[in-house]
Amino acid sequence: MLKDELPEIVTGTVPGPKAKELLDRRNAAIPKALCGSTYPICIARGEGAMLEDLDGNKFLDWIGGVGVLNMGYSRPEVVEAVKEQADKYFHTIFNVVVHDGYVSLAEKFNQTIPCRGDKKKTYFANSGAEADENAIKVAKAYTGRPNVVCFSGAFHGRTNLTMALTAKKAYSLGMGPFPSGIYRADYPYLYRAPKGYTEEEAIKYYIDKIYKLFDEATPASDVACMIIEPIQGEGGFVPAPIEWVKAVRKICDDNGILMIADEVQCGNCRTGRYFASEYWAEAGAAPDIVSTAKSMGAGMPISAITASEEIMDSVPAGTIGGTYCGNPVSCAAANKVIDIMKAEDFAGKARHIADRVMAKFNELKEKYPVVGDVRGLGAMIGVEYVKDKESKEPYGEFVSKMIQNAIQMGLLMENAGTNGNVIRFLAPLVMTDEQMEKGLEIYEAALVKTMKDLGL
C-alpha cells in the first residue's frame, strides 16, 4: 500500500509528462498568483505520509498541506465518516436547523481546549483566518475595547483584518486600506535577539517592548486582546518562550486584556500536546481564547473558536456565524479525527517523531556551517539556514535550491521565515519509522548537493 512505501522518482526528473500537461492547463486557466513554479507536483492519490503523482512518482510529504495532514492522507475511518454523512445530507445552516455533529464536536472541544474557564463554549467557522477574525470579534465584544496587539513575524490569514495582523506585507501587497486599531510588538525570536543577550535578558527586552507600545502607540486600557502563535508558522517556526508567555499573561491580567492563542497550525497534536497552549496552561498561563483549524478536519474545511461561557455569551446575536460554518460533512470528519487522535495518542506520535528528527537536525547543525539554528515544539520543527554562524545572515537562496533538490529525490519540503531561510518540518504524524529515516537520508543528501551546487 502507498502509505507504507518509500519515495521513488520513476520519470528521472520531475515533473513527468502527465504532470507537465496538467501544469500547462493550470497556467492557462488559473490566476498567476496561484501558479507558482516551486512545486511541479500533480497528485493522483495520497495515503498516510505519501503522495503519488500523475506519472507514478512517489513523494514523502513533509509539508502536509501546510499543517493540515497530521492525520495523513485518506484515513479510511475519516473517509467512511464523510461518506456516511454525505448519504444523509450535505448542509444545514446551523442558525436555522441544528445537527448533532456540530453539538457533539463542540462538546468534545470544550473538554479538550486548554483555555481558561470551568465551563467552555465552542463554535465553528471554515478556515484559520475566519477563526482568528472571530476570536477577535469575541474579545472586542467581551471587553468593549477597540484595539488589538499582534506581533512581528505573525501570520494570521488573508482576510482584510488578518492581513493587517500578518507581519510580512508580501501577503497583503496593494490590498489596503486595512482596519485601524492594530498594533504590533516584537515577538521573542531568541536566535535573533540583540547580540550578547542571555535568554533572560532577551525575554525582558521583548517584554519591555510591549510596555513601550502601551506608552507610545495604544494605551493598555484600549486593548481588547493580544493574539499570539504558540509557535510561529510563516514567521519561521519560532516557539514562544514559556517565561515570556507567563509575563504576557500577567500583563493581560493586570490590564483586562484577553490572550488569544492562534493554534491554527500548531494545534491538533502537532506539538506533542493536543494543543500547544497546554504547555502554557501547565505553567499557569492558559489563554482566554483558542482558535484552531487545519488538521482538525483531516483536510475538510473547518475551524474552531473556544473560550469560557462568560466570554462567549457576551457576543451579540448576529455578529458571529455564517452560511457554511459547522458544515455537517466537515463536522463528521472532525468528530472522527478527534476520536482517533485521542484513542491512538497522536500527541505521543508527535513526540516520538520529534525525538528522532530533532536529534538528526541538531547533528546536521554541528556538521554543516550553513545550519544556523534548530528549534521547534514537538513535531513542528524549523531549521534556519545562514551564510555563516557568526553574522547569522539569512541564506534564503540555499533553502530554495535545497527544496528543489529534495523534490527531485522524492521529498517535499517548504520554507518559512521573513527571509525564506527556514525549512519547516510538518510531516504527517502517521509517517512510518522507515519513511522517517529515508526522509532524513534524502534531507542530508539534498543539503550536501546544495552546498556543492553553490560551491560551498
Please tell me about this protein's structure.
- By secondary structure, this protein is of the alpha/beta class.
- It folds into 2 domains: 2-61 and 346-453, Alpha-Beta Complex (Aspartate Aminotransferase, domain 1), CATH 3.90.1150.10; 77-343, Type I PLP-dependent aspartate aminotransferase-like (Major domain) (Aspartate Aminotransferase, domain 2, 3-Layer(aba) Sandwich), CATH 3.40.640.
- It has helices at residues 17-29, 64-67, 76-88, 100-112, 128-143, 160-165, 199-216, 242-255, 277-282, 309-312, 328-343, 346-367, 396-409, 433-453, and strands at 43-47, 50-53, 58-61, 120-125, 147-151, 182-185, 223-228, 258-263, 289-292, 303-308, 371-377, 380-385, 411-412, 414-416, 422-425.
- A hairpin with a 5-residue loop joins strand 14 (414-416) and strand 15 (422-425).
- Helix 3 (76-88) runs antiparallel to helix 11, helix 4 runs parallel beside helix 11 and helix 7 packs parallel to helix 8 (242-255).
- The longest helix is centred in the C-terminal third of the chain and has 22 residues, at 346-367.
- The chain is globular, with a radius of gyration of 22 Å.
